[in-house]
Amino acid sequence: METENHRIVNTQQLFLATVESLENEINELKTQNFILKAQLDEKVAQQEHLLQANKCMQAEIVDLKLTETALRLSLDRLLSEKNDLEIILDTTTSHSDTIEAMMYDKALLLAREVTIDGLTQIANRRAFDQRLEKEWQRLARESLPMSMLLCDVDFFKRYNDRYGHPTGDECLRTVAKAIDACIRRPADLAARYGGEEFAVILPNTEREGATFIAEQICQVIDDLAIPHEASYVSNHVTISIGISSTMPDYRVSPKNLIESADKGLYLAKNQGRNRAVFSGS
């Protein structure tokens, strides 16, 4: 009986030990399962992160490809513009002499338009004023004389009334050309002063030289024999001239020389026209 009881006790102990061992294994398996599940969750999270990163990289690749395409198009456009500019530069360089010559001619033309009278093609009033001031200052420094002539076509209004303005314009052109031909020094200047009046600047010229040139102008105009049936002094065009000479001075205006020549012109008209008369300044 004792032996039987002892066997039952051993069997129970073995059973309990087995159950305990199984429970330990189960708990250990549960622990391992928990760890594995945590690792699996971590791997899933990493996979999601990698998928998201891959998606962003794919988008960046698309953007980079679009940017590359845009840059390539821009580069092609710039190369085309560069080629066009090189062609223009080559053309401009090869024609630079021609362009420079054209610009120089244009500058001369503009300068001429500013200083040349459009009708008579001799110096205009602007050129006259500039030259008078310049020569006045120069001669004042050098203590040299200056003379001036003021010329007026006799009875020119009656000429226009008789022959018409186109013929009158042609008359003024002829007279201007004749006056200009009577002066030869580079510093001398014949200019259209206004209307039918002309002025002559004679630097470094005293009364005798100015009178000689004035009388020569009167004679040349008379020799032209331009018909003027409406004149009271001749049957052809004549001219009256006022002469003035002085020593330029910084303290005196060159207008005084003009006024003196104008006074001489007034005297020439009062004395019968078709003559040159001197008036001191």
Name a few traits of the molecule:
alpha+beta; 2 domains; single chain; 281 residues; Alpha-Beta Plaits; 7 helices; five-stranded mixed beta sheet; 11% strand
Write the SSE topology:
Elements: H1 2-94, H2 96-115, H3 125-142, E1 146-153, H4 156-163, H5 165-181, E2 189-194, E3 197-203, H6 207-224, E4 239-246, H7 255-270, E5 276-278
**Which structural class fits the helix and strand makeup?**
alpha+beta
Number of helices: 7
Instruction: Classify the beta-strand content into a percent band.
Output: 5-15%
Distance between the termini: 178 Å
Helix and strand pattern? HHHEHHEEHEHE
Return the CATH architecture of the largest domain. 2-Layer Sandwich
Rounded Rg: 56 Å
What's the overall average pLDDT, rounded? 87
* Helical content class: 55-70%
Main sheet makeup: 5 strands, mixed
- CATH topology term of the largest domain: Alpha-Beta Plaits
Low-confidence stretches: 107-112
Which CATH class of the largest domain?
Answer: Alpha Beta
Overall geometry: rod-shaped
CATH superfamily of the largest domain: Reverse transcriptase/Diguanylate cyclase domain
Topology, number of strands: 5
Domain count, please report it.
Answer: 2
Strand order of the largest sheet: 2-3-1-4-5
